[in-house]
Amino acid sequence: MLHNRVTFTETKNGKHRTLPISDEVMGAVKTKQSGLLFDVNYQSYRKMLKEIKPDLPVGQTVHVLRHTFAAHFMMNGGNILTLQKIMGHASIQQTMTYAHFARDYQLDAIKFNPLRGCIHIPIHIIGETWASIAPR
User: Fold this and answer.
1) Distance, first Cα to last Cα, the chain
2) What are phi and psi of 63, to 5 degrees?
């Protein structure tokens, strides 16, 4: 770990991935001298998940955590390309499965329109100008 970044070396696709971490996480990580970074009881986790989702296929428990992270990342306004890098997906198509969680992503068409605020559109009703819209 260097400059609030952590590098994962044992990934599913075999590629190393370096990601930023918050000051809070960095502080918690620095206190660990050795051993596992997180003390997780996987049996308890699997049991709890089985109670919530009994039909979950074998081997999907960690995937549930990744999926939950990705969904909430997008719901909080995260960028799909950033999510691709975080998840380590080789193609954007893999990451696009989470795009539907994006919060009002279509409103970005208005928010990031380079002509926003420059257009004055008159509204005509029965041949007369009734009002006009000037985006703010």
Assistant:
1) 45
2) -60, -35
Q: How far is CA 7 from CA 3, 23, 25, 68, in A?
A: 11, 16, 14, 21
How many domains, in total, are found in the chain?
2
Over residues 45-89, the pLDDT tens digits come to: 888 888 888 888 877 877 888 888 999 998 888 899 999 999 999
In the three-class reduction of DSSP (H, G, I as helix; E, B as strand; rest coil), residue 25 is classed as helix
Q: How is residue 44 annotated by DSSP? A: H
Structural domain for 12, as ranges: 1-37
Residues 93 and 105 in one domain: yes
Tokens of 122: 């008159």
Instruction: Please indicate, yes or no, whether residues 50 and 115 belong to a single structural domain of this protein.
Output: yes
